[in-house]
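Curious: explain these tokens?
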Amino acid sequence: MSTGGPPQPPHSVAASVRERLSAMLERGVDAFGAWGPRRILRELEHVLDPSVSEVEGGRRAAAVAQWYAGATAEQRRDCWLLMSEHFTPDVSAIDAAHAAYEAARGTEDESRAEVRLRRAFTAPRTRLLQRFSAYPQGVRFLVDLRAELLPQLRRDKRLAALDGELQELFSTWFDVGFLELRRISWDSPASLIEKLIRYEAVHDIKSWADAKNRLDEDRRCYGFFHPRLGDDPLIFIEVALLREMAAGVVPLLDEEADPANLEKASCAIFYSISNTQAGLKGVSFGDALIKRVVGALQQEFQQLKLFATLSPIPGLRAWLQAHAQGLLDAMAPRARQALALELGVAQPDAAALLSALDGLADWPEKSARRRWLLGAAARYLGREKTEDGRPLDPVARFHLGNGARIERINWLADPSPKGMKQSHGLMVNYLYDLKRLDRHRAQLAQGRIPVSSAVEGLLD
């Protein structure tokens, strides 16, 4: 709402904040209220003022963050756009530094010219955001700001610069060398256990009894923590210690099951890994977390020989909907005939087969339909890739990128509504063979997804 001057027509959605701000400065009024773009810009420049100390800059940043907490959606959006569009690198300085670097190449001045070029590319936005990190809650403020910003990126590309800057800074501030690995147990503070319940993203924690089961003495749960975020984990992993590789999640979540005998445990199963901070999207912790957890487990249980996951296949059902007919057409005639016989049709088609999947819980072990679904899952995980050559399934992409191998596909391993909706109940074990992680990464880099002989057999 305007605080002075005649009413103005609504601004164009496509108009940049810079254009709106310029028009307001010409009028000499703040047409968007006491905390419109003009005031927001003044306060951000106040934070960035190079003449004040880091402590004072942090104090000013804290005042902006306090205002932001009560700001409207439009005010927050103006703040993002100003950070993204106004605090940009000096293009003329970049051009001059680049020309100087080109002239200095091959001479003794090349290194100094490179430093000047790097500095020229550094936007004032970087310094501005660093000032926010100078007060105790500043890192939390920026992480939450990015979480709110991310859903807007697709429809407003002007925010990309701010998002990219935040991600670059977070990649440094949240480097795994600065993170603390902590075990989370039933003896941990109740407030921390409440966060696990809230953040669990793979298998919902339904009650405190469920949480206790997952944190009991025969289980392990670990999280990465950052000193600026206190007792809020960045990511956590739940581990079951067993005698053999788990084929289903139901026994792991059974609150009435007897505790496992830790003296006879030879296998560590990672059955849930949950990122907790939406604002840290694109900042990877999982690889380092698994390595650190394996080290902690080996130190505590020297008899452990096998480290594997029991993982969901979140994209399988949707992929099947789109590719079922193609999979059927590619089947050998004899296999397609067996499938038609079970379905009671002359020629199997995608509609009949997908409809039959609703009754898969009753399929016998050697049925043609079961064989088809397992083979389709093996193809999805072990063959299908994105346009840039990475595994198509997001969970597969994560574990295979860490050096794991697709070890086994498990039938009806997660019969929950969520499991059936994602993958018709199928789950997969990714094996972390500690001696072959680098070999598997190299294989993946060459375009070949590492799979076990059992999974390879499903692809025949």
Q: What stands out?
A: The chain has four domains: 17-88+123-173, 91-121, 176-309, 316-458. Confidence is low (pLDDT under 50) at residues 1-14, 25-33.
